[in-house]
Write a structure and sequence with these properties.
about 45% helix, three-stranded antiparallel sheet, transmembrane helix, 8 helices, membrane, single chain, transmembrane, alpha/beta, 7 strands, about 210 residues
Length: about 210
């Protein structure tokens, strides 16, 4: 079984919506892939705007981003907008402290390309990587993330939706809207956690 089939099989179990959307794609049309001499050093070119995903070496950019993310190494939950070429997230997932990584990508074709080149099947099956297509990210979808892992609500104060790199600034309106869904879901979650604690106290008093 090739890498893409392994990733698809994992998504079939965890995210049937994304699985179905990816199954409809047979080839990349909007983006051209440029492979370097290292399997982790590949760039994507947006053919519509003639804009590369990375302005300089993709591998150097990923390593630099990883180094700059050292302050988040103790965070159990991280949120990013933009999948890039996936290499940065492959590095992040090597951190045992990271319980769940949520990555939102606006371009389905980028998800298609990355899942053809990098194996994330284990992390998808273990719910350590939640890969979302931005078009599916309504309030209910975002709120469900905190229902499937209630511990994530306890880290609401650490929430921050980070932009992957400058290429994704063109999708800022989508990012802002999705960020609002996250904020609303976390606020609702905080109320729920508060009510749970209150109910627990009442239960203790009754005993």
């Amino acid at each position: 079984m090739d890498i893409y089939q392994k990733n698809l099989q994992a998504l079939f179990k965890k995210d049937p919506l994304l699985f179905a959307k990816l199954k409809a794609i047979k080839e990349n049309k909007k983006y051209e892939v440029f492979l370097g001499n290292d399997s982790a050093n590949f760039n994507l070119l947006d053919k519509e705007t003639n804009t590369p995903l990375f302005e300089k070496s993709p591998l150097d950019s990923s390593l630099e981003l990883y180094k700059n993310s050292e302050i988040y190494m103790l965070y159990p939950y991280l949120y990013y907008f933009g999948l890039g070429n996936g290499v940065f997230y492959r590095l992040l997932l090597g951190n045992g402290n990271l319980k769940r990584l949520v990555v939102i990508e606006p371009e389905i074709e980028i998800i298609f390309i990355v899942l053809n080149l990098l194996d994330f099947s284990t992390e998808i099956l273990e719910n350590r990587l939640i890969l979302l297509h931005a078009s599916f990210c309504n309030y209910n979808m975002i709120a469900s993330l905190f229902d499937m892992d209630k511990k994530s609500r306890l880290y609401a104060r650490m929430y921050d939706l980070k932009l992957f790199n400058a290429y994704y600034e063109r999708y800022s309106h989508q990012m802002i809207e999705i960020n609002q869904h996250f904020t609303r879901a976390l606020e609702h979650g905080a109320i729920s956690v508060g009510n749970d604690a209150k109910d627990a106290l009442i239960g203790i008093k009754q005993h």
